[in-house]
Every structure is written in structure tokens, then in C-alpha cells.
Amino acid sequence: MPFLVLLLTTGLVFLALDAVMLSTVMRPLFERHLGEGLLDGLRLGPAILFYLLYMGGVMYFVSLPALRADAPTQALINGAILGLVAYGTYELTSYAVMRDWHVSMAAVDMCWGAVLTGVSAWCGVMAARAIG
To answer: pLDDT, tens digit, for every residue of 91-117?
Structure first.
């Protein structure tokens, strides 16, 4: 039961926070720099695959070890590191190879990846600890 609470809480917090950030900050930022190069809608398949793959990584590398160690702060810190690395890999590669990619897009998204992943992992561990 704690694993299910850990997974669901982490995933729901991640999705909810990311939906707000994507719609209010990231979409306008990307539209400003990519313009017509940005899709009008979302490719749902790749988005779902990203979230499933990423949640698997967060669970394996961050949340489960922190829960086993009874260390929510470990989830926050290691989640932030994983988020920075993962989002940084995408953003810095995109900035290195794409003409219209802008440094502000990379910087904002890398910071967001660190905050989002750390907070989501921490919330998941806290919820799993609370139930048992």
C-alpha cells in the first residue's frame, strides 16, 4: 500500500504542477521563441510515454530509496538533482543543435525540472510515510 500511495501521490503532484507551469509559463515562453515551429496541440502518445518513463526513474532512483531510508529530505534533494540532470540533458542538447532554441527556455525549464521533480518526490514520500 505505501508503494501505491508513493506512486500515485508523486505522479499526481507532478502532473498537476506541470500542467499549470506548462500552460502559464512554458507555453508562452516557447511560443515567443519558436513561433510557428511549435505544435498547436499536444502529441499525447509521446507525452504519456515521457511521464511513465520519468515516473519510473523517479521511483527507482529517488522515491523508493528515500522512503526506505525514511528520509523525505533525501527525496527532495535527490529529486531536484535528477530533475536538473534530466531536464538539463534535453534543454542543453536542444540549445546546442536547434537554431531557434533560446537560452531562456533552457534556463527556465532546467530550474523547473529540478523544482518539480524534487517537490513531487518529497510529497510522495511524505504521503507514503503518513499511511504507514
So the answer is: 999 999 999 999 999 999 999 999 999
